[in-house]
Each structure stands twice: as structure tokens, then as C-alpha cells.
Amino acid sequence: MIYLDNAATTMHKPQCVIDAVVSAMSSMGNAGRGANEASLSASRIIYDTRERLCRLFGGTSPKQVVFTCNSTESLNIAIRGLLEPGDHVITTMLEHNSVLRPLYEMEKKGVKLTIVESDRNGRLDISKIEEAVSDETKMIICTNGSNLTGNYVDIGTVGKIAKAHGVLFVVDASQTAGVFPIDVEKMNIDVLCFTGHKGLLGPQGTGGMYVREGIAIKPLKSGGTGVQTYHKTQPEKMPTHLEAGTLNGHGIAGLHAALGYILETGIDNIRAREQELMWKFYKGVKDIPEVTVYGDFSSRERCPIVTLNIGDYDSGEVSDALLTDYGISTRPGGHCAPLMHEALGTAWQGAVRFSFCHYNTDEEVETAIRAVRELAQEDE
Amino acid sequence: MKKKELKFVVTFHTTADAMAMEKACKEQNVPGRIIPVPRAISAGCGLSWCAGLSDREQIVSMMKKAGIEEEEIHECMV
């Protein structure tokens, strides 16, 4: 199989990640639940993973790294834990449902929502975010990269706007963490939400958030913490404040190894290779008759994603043909980004997404180009 | 059970703080080890750092330098 669905999850994990999970499953206890060696070994590796993530994202304290199951949980914690009725929040058409749905729910509770539009290529005019800021604005929340088009959002510039207006800045880094440089301090990010199983190359069920020191988020969950057993309320200190219940220690052990791999390989090297594969594919398919490629390719800086349609074929049909005729795994359909599809005009047809990982080969990309060309010729 | 003796014990707000302590102590060859919080200090749960009374000064100064936040500092029978 040629796996080109890396924006959904990276399937090829470094061997060290697999080894770390297997080893953790035969040696790790429950972190923070006692001082026995098994429990301590979990606590140690989890703490060390906080340190690695803090370093990767330019944070000031590993204690501000909170573990969750995925970006969706992190975004829910940030949105529901920071916004109150009457607050105004600004987001964009590029967002995934993990941002939009919690915001729509908060809107029902009295939060005012502005969604900044993109153009037909999914390009965001960042000045429109600043134009939307009012006295009531509490938060700007946006993605660092569209999961549908791969368009990159310059969060450094958005962060400057947020800082200038004294507004909280929350970033969805689902498509960029581990591949693009993110510096929460330099980019004025108050809450960074990430998942562990995409560009960070860790196991599914791992993810987290980096919360700027001093930002108080109301917890989404309360429960066991391993400290302050007889208190009736969730402990106030981070990261425990936002972490109730047993952490995914086995998964985090894998993420720990993945971060070691990424820090050693270098995210610049990983990104350069992924973008090289993306551009190769893009150049190979963009001029094929009947093929429509979506997104902004005028900028070099973009996520390793190419999304297209062939004629007016149902994207699901094309994805199925790619799999059955060529053994290529892609993702068709709606991609959980309804507003982006509306902007691109693909709400009915959906779109076929090809997304690349540095483990993919030039030969795989060449096969994918040939497959698209042949399927498009059938359409003529 | 072994006979108790007076020890120097530091408690923490979170497991993460306890782990930061253990790591810093190991890196800087500061004596002591993680133990469950003694009941005499708190009837809760959690981890604490336990060392000899004579190690107090060295530990406190290391914690200050490394920016490690304690919950409480005690001398108690462990």
C-alpha cells in the first residue's frame, strides 16, 4: 500500500516509537499514583516528555504542558474553559469541526462569534482578523494550517495582532506540530493545541496543549490526580489542574521516543523532504486536463497536502479507484472542514486529499501522479 | 517495619514538580529519594523528597537555583 493520508494520521512511525510503547506496556505503572518503581518510571517518562514538548514549542516551563487525548480535547478545554457568555471570539473559515463545533455550542450560551472569510483558494486575509477585533473580543482562535488545502497560516502575524489588542490567542497546530517551527513566546501564543499522532509521529490517543504561564483555564474534567485526595475541588496547580484521571502513559512513552526522533532528525529536514514530495506531486498533477487542485500554491510555505478533484466525479469514487486499482490510500469527502469546502465550492463533491510524510518515496509520488493521470483520462 | 528517624522532607503541589525535583537532584548529585508523602505531614497522597537532616541546606539552595517549587518543607519521623 502507498499511504498518502498522513494528514489524518502518520501511519509509518519510527521503530523507536513502537519499541518504547512495547517496553512501557511491560514496565510502566500509573504515573503519580504511588512511589513504587513502576509508577515512578511512568512519572519520569511523562515529565521528560513535558520537557521535550516545552523545548520543541519554545515554552518557559514544562509544567505548562498538559496531556490530553488529541487536539480535539485540547481545543475543547481551551474554548469551553476560557470563554464566558458575552465574550466575543474570532475564528476563520479554515477551521476544523474541532474548533467550529465547540464554538457553535458556546454561541448558543451567549458567546459572540465572528468567522473571518477566506477567498476561493482558501487564502486568509489576516488584516480581516484585526478588523474584526472589538472591545468585547476575548479570543482569536485559528489553525496554523488547513487540513483540507494545506494552506499555511502565518500565526506569528496573528499573534502580533492578538498581543496588540490584549486578546487571547489560541492555535490549532494539528497539521503543523512536529513539522513547522512553533515558538509560543515569539508568536505570542497563549494556548497551543496539538495532537501526538500526526506530524509528531506518536501513537493515537496522545496530544496536549501548552498554556502560557498565568492563564487560568477552567478544567473540562475533574477527578483523580494523585495529589490532594481530600480536597473537594480539582487542584489549582498546573499541569494537574487540567489533567484528571490516568494519563495515557504507554502512549506518552511512544510520543517521548517520537520527540527524540524529531529533535534528532530536525523539523527543518523533515519539512523540507515533505514539501519536496508535495511539490513533486503538485507539479505532476496540476496541468492534467479535468484535474482541479484546491488551495494556494503561490506560497512556498505550505503543509504537505495536495487536494484535488477529477472532473465532476464523486471524490469517494476517485479515492476508491486509487485504492483498488493502484493501492493508494487517500482521503475523500468532507474532511471535517465544512466552511472551507463552502469557500472552495466543494461541499457537494468533497475532495480527494493526498498528504505526505517524509517517509514517502519519490517512486510512490510518481505512482500517484500516474494514477491521477490515468483516472482523469478515463473521464475524458 | 524499620525504626523511624528524623528526616528532611519536601512535599510538592503536583507529580510534575516532584519529577522536576528528582531530575534536578540526580543531575546535581544532591542526596535523597522520592517517597510517598508521610501521613504525619498530610493525609492525602502524592510524592515527596526525603533526605537526611544534614542535607537540608544543600537541597534548599539547589531548589532555589533550579526554580523548583515546594508545597511544604518539614522535618519529621520517617
Q: How is this structure best described in words?
A:
- The complex is a heterodimer of chains A (380) and B (78).
- Chain A is α/β, with parallel strands linked by helices and 380 residues long.
- Chain A folds into 2 domains: 15-265, Type I PLP-dependent aspartate aminotransferase-like (Major domain) (Aspartate Aminotransferase, domain 2), CATH 3.40.640; 266-379, Aspartate Aminotransferase, domain 1 (Alpha-Beta Complex), CATH 3.90.1150.10.
- In chain A, 38% of the residues lie in helices and 14% in strands.
- Chain A has 11 helices and 12 strands.
- Chain A has a 7-stranded mixed beta sheet, with helices on both faces. A 3-stranded antiparallel beta sheet of chain A has the order 9-10-12.
- Chain A is globular, with a radius of gyration of 21 Å.
- Chain B is an alpha+beta fold and 78 residues long.
- Chain B has a single domain, classed as Alpha-Beta Plaits (2-Layer Sandwich), CATH 3.30.70.
- Chain B is 31% helix and 27% strand.
- In chain B, strands 2-3-1-4 form a 4-stranded antiparallel beta sheet, covered by helices on one side.
- Chain B is globular.
- The mean pLDDT of chain B is 92.
- Chains A and B meet through α2 of A and α1 and β2 of B.
